[in-house]
Write a structure and sequence with these properties.
Elements lengths: L20 H17 L31 E12 L2 E12 L3 E5 L6 H8 L7 E6 L2 E2 L5 H4 L3 E4 L12 H11 L4 H15 L12 H14 L4 E5 L7 H16 L3 E5 L3 H7 L2 E6 L2 E7 H5 L2 H6 L6 H8 L10 H11 L1
Parallel strand pairs: 3-8, 3-9, 6-7, 7-8
Antiparallel strand pairs: 1-2, 1-4, 4-5, 9-10
Amino acid sequence: MEKEHLLPADCTGEGRICLNAQEAAEIVKKATGAQLDKKAPRAPQEPQEAESVVPEALKGPANDDTAQTVLSFENVSFSYNETANVKDLNVQIRKGDFTAIIGSNGAGKSTFSKLCNGLLKPSTGDVLVLGNNTKKQKVSALAKHIGFLFQNPDRQICCQTVREEIAFSLRNNNIPEAEIKTRVENTIKEFGFNPDVEPFNMSRGQRQRLCLACLIALNPEILILDEPTTGLDYRECMEVMGKIQELNNNGTTVIMVCHDMEVVLDFAKSIIVMNRGEIMGEGPTRSVLGDDVLLNKARLLPPQIAQVAKLLGPRFDGIFTDDELIAKVKETL
């Protein structure tokens, strides 16, 4: 995902901090100067609650601890060629949750996601989807309840037109033809697609939206996303994630494997941290992203603005976004 930030253009590379205190100060000076020249509105009194980049209409409610458990892992381990990919996983996902799975390469995130929908079966332990043990269910049966969005949309597209692609997923689930026609037309209208376009003539972001549309047409209760924003620019990312957030607001449970901490911060309600096949911690999004000890153990970094804020001192603790940083600096002027 490409997004304009206050950070220097050469501040790149996953997994390392590339700012010192002087650079952080310059960023703040630049940001506040630009804002004050424009006579920006007075900053809020509680900057840590400042408006996120996510529109208010797209923000979901907090997780409901009383909600139904729709997915659970009970002492789950999975081994491939006698090597444990994940081990002793115990997880409960409730209806309406939006949970991000984060971890460095090889942490077991993709294995976790494929265990969720039965593409992989546990070596030991049980995965329950809406009370059904995945060991006793075919993937096709689970697919009626769980939609899986792959990282690469080209792995899911197989038809010559947008209309045919959406209809294909419905026919695979034995939806009656009259219902297929209605759902296809409604989905095309909702996403604003040209129904006769050949999918591979669309941009990558549009192809990802098409794959998401195919899943939405099936009305899944659970949606699993494997790095949904990889290869997308900022506008495409917001289009895809905005639609996913709308689904979550309407009750769809979302589980998202993601390495982009800005996306995690903006959209996820809670986080599960994985490292070397184990769950190291979990909790509300800001609580996890503010836990330096946990992130260090998992070989992860918080969002870049949070790194800048930490370099500026204790007064800036709890700052995660551009807007919050600017508001806090203006408060101290």
